[in-house]
Structure prediction request, 633 residues.
Amino acid sequence: MSLPVRSATLLALLALAAASLFVGVIDMAPSQLLRGSEALKLMAVSRLPRTLAVVLTGATLAVAGVIMQMLARNRFVEPTTAGTGQSAALGILLATLYAPGAPLVVKMGFASLTALLGSGIFLLIVRRLPVTQPLLVPLVGLVYGAIIGAGVTFLAYRTDLLQYVSIWLNGEFSGVIAGRYEFLFVSGIAAVIAYLAADRFSILGLGRDASISLGLNYNQMLLLGLVVVSVITALTVVNIGMIPFVGLVVPNIASRLLGDNLRSSLPFVAASGAGLVLVCDIVGRIVRHPYEIPVGTVFGVVGAVIFLWLLYAKRPSHG
Amino acid sequence: MAERRLIWLALGLIVAVLIFMTWGARGNWGFVLAFRGTKLLALLVVSAAIAVSTVLFQTITANRILTPSIMGFDALFLLFQAGLVFVLGGFGVTQLSSGLRFGMEFALLMGAALHLFGTLIGAARHDIHRLVLTGIIFGVLFRSLTSFIERLIDPNEFAVVQSSSFASFNSFDADLLRYCVPLCVLGIAAAWHYRRELDVIALGRDHAINLGLNHKRIVLIILTIIALLVSVSTALAGPVTFFGLLVASLAHLVMRSHRHALLLPAASLCAGIVLVGGQAITERVLSLSVPLSVAVEFLGGLVFLTLILRGTQR
Prediction:
């Protein structure tokens, strides 16, 4: 069952990426690549970077969602429903305000740090919630994120930076050209690290007592997970902007299809995350051609519908 | 005893109104009073509409956490507003009288509210967290759809929509106010008419039916009233997610009663005090540097979080 699913996903992803290369304001057929240097330049400066950025963002956000779900031990958690994205926005806002001259790397580092703090506090809150009420966790997370978001809006309103905030909180790929997305490879590395430690995260998802008795350094793994999630979220917020529900929708579908063994399902999760965001980005480019609809908006619609379906559909039992 | 607290609240509102009308006024009193009077009227209409609709909604869903705006009612209203511009075109919409336009938006919201939330409340009545989560996700869905449609609209036509999609207590459409005041009064009068039935519904569905109430019919009527009041407040002030929750919790805290004859006026008075007093403070003391809507959302969000967390510890 799982092998056809995997190869179908991979094929679909490749087809989508190819399609993404040839959708844009300027009409370009693949044959033109062989003839003009103009077409090659367009490809190298705009189309290829954009497609890579979409793939990286979709894949890493989906992985961040899985890790977050293991850390919080809840299926309905992801960076936007845990205050991580909003905390990252707060960090980059503070960095822009108080150290406007600092290099981008420093600002992103600071954003990762605040994202780490924000999600750490969320995990502390989650621990106090009763295990018998699983839907309480995303509920609290959403409101927690909304409160941090209100703080960010307030601060930005006072300092006339509201426009930046709306860029950080609503993902869009139209600004991606060569030289302005390469930091996303760092979050790609973070996702690979998560994959290397996949088995340990699976154990972490069993809970504190179970993982310690299986010989896992619980706190160390918890911290590693938080760092991975925070770095991915912060880099996405700063470079692209938040895309809601990627980390929630994709892992849940994956877990329905393939079960919960992270080492075998994580590549599938990453590929389908990339594919789903690619679809939304291509739709956003086509619907109002030659204008664009931000991918955050398109995914907000798609993701919310799938989330509602996940909430009400019966979970199939798989052996 | 409880009646006396109501009087105190009324006095508080009068003080807030006096402060709002007179503080820092200079020059021609005729102009100042007319200018601030219109704004005051709008603020009072908005606060009463939000307060009453929230209390009604909490009664028919039998809990203190849900509010119409958390369930995405006002996001839905904005979606219909944008959808109308998209279907008819900006020119077509501006051709409509604002009364007719409001009427169409209200009719759409009422239809959707009865259909969608009527079934939802029935289906998930016993799982309150699922219900709240569904509402929040619906809110995200409606807001995303709205901005999706806004992107499809011509930029010139977009201006027709844009003005209404952010909460604002500073400027109100005087033309719209003419329709909203009587509609708001109508809705509140209807709610008052059903205050005793509401007391019975608050006991729970089974008890209410046992006591001889046509539960389904009354709930449908109440949902209609809620849709009317939400349309009024959203058309006038835009979406405010947590304000209703804030004032309904305040009213419960002050009155410590389940009688709607007390709760409905108390919530309206609390809302009036917060909105009028808050607006006076933001205008005069903070010179509009902190938008009242942001402050209210922040406080209301904290109330929401404490309500949820406290509810689990019992």
